Amino acid sequence: MEVSATGMKLRSRVSAAEKEEQAKKLKLEKEAWENRPFIQYKGILKYHTELIDCAIQCDNLLERAKKTDDLMVVGFDMEWSFSFETGPGKTAVIQISPDLNTCYILHVSKLRNLPKGLSEFLAHPKVRLTGNNIKKYFDVRKLARDFTGFDVDRLIENCIDLGVMANSILPVKQRWSLEKLVDYTLNMKINKDKKASLMIYLTLKEREQQEMEKEQNQNVNNVIS
Description:
Layout: E1 2-3, E2 9-10, H1 16-34, E3 44-48, H2 51-67, E4 72-83, E5 87-99, E6 102-107, H3 116-122, E7 127-131, H4 139-146, H5 152-157, E8 159-161, H6 162-169, H7 178-186, H8 194-224
Parallel strand pairs: 3-6, 4-7, 7-8
Antiparallel strand pairs: 1-2, 4-5, 5-6
């Protein structure tokens, strides 16, 4: 719709046929997006809740960083609860993925302190932490607030923000979410269904329970023998 100099409304230059064609195009684009496959992780999940187990894995990652000749680029993410009354809760989960086949999930909500190996690994000069908004917003800053022993300035230096990097190399510039990045670069979708996340959590808890039962059985066997 256009407006003339006298303020009178003029008929739109877009014909009915053009509007119909545009509507068909939008419908096809929506259908194409809906039919895109969900991105799936097919690697190994290593879930730890005890300080000693977290420390061992962090020490292993640190040794790996020390031995590498190139930069060690790792996926990094954190999770915590949020309340509109009290604000963000303490860091609950730290996820570290040193390659496409392995993801360490450290459930740290009950830990008072984090392993020294973790702070040394995250601040190592050969390590680069990648994630969306991890530098600009909460993740590494929140980690330094929630736990002692972290040099927030050093952590920020090691961060590669995927949204910022995308705007520097892709022809499209926008405020990127992880969902938009997956959609644009991989032509795939992220499964936002809470049931999917719950199933992963329950699977990990079941695996943890099985490991505990194996340990207990082994201890009983040792005592009996």
